[in-house]
Amino acid sequence: MTPPGGTWRPGAWCGLLPLAMAWPLAFELPLSILLGSSRGLLGALAGLVLLALAAQRIWRGRYGDRHRAAVLVGVAAGLIGALCAGIFAPIAAVFGLGAYAGARLLFDDVPEAVPPPGPARADAPSPPPSAPFEEAAARLLRIRTQAPSLPLAGALISAADALEALRLDLLPRQDPPPEARRFLLTSLEGLERIQARLAAGAEPPASLPPLLAEMAATAHAWRERLRRLETEALDIHIKVLSDRLRERRP
Known about the structure:
This protein is an all-alpha fold and about 250 residues long. Helix content is about 70%, strand content about 0%.
């Protein structure tokens, strides 16, 4: 015997048990009809339908069918006890709970389908590549705004202007050189710390002006290197395009 629309599954024989439990109803049903007992007839019909549904769930074997079948068995037992046997309703409910617990234990060996995967969790969107450069714009503007009231204001502003020019050159690039990006962000962080110390009343050491000048010069050097890289890339593109046009010339 095989389940409808499928093949035999180990443990599916438990689907016969709800039907086996219904054998007393084969006598209750005609007896209720002969005696005209509407309560007995209703209980027998409800019990048969619920137990048949429980057996169908066990045969089907979808995810969660073991629990559904046990619930159906428990409800059927409670209704049969209350309507057919005339048991007091609270006692019939306890009887149904006991039948549910027993069915849960009995159906534990019945295999089920693998539970469906949960909804895929959307990964947090990664920040756009230009996000650090856009944040750097506000930080550089803050430095240039506060620098005039500090010692070495000219050197601070020159360094901030050089970093801003480098930032503008890196901003439109989809894949800026990591070294240039690292230099910009590291220099910006250092410049902010220098400004904070000077604003707190620190006296600028003799090594600070050369450091700021070197920062500005390095930023200009990076801009020149970026221009050379772009020029080389353009030359390569022009050469490839010229070769393709030459190949297609009639």
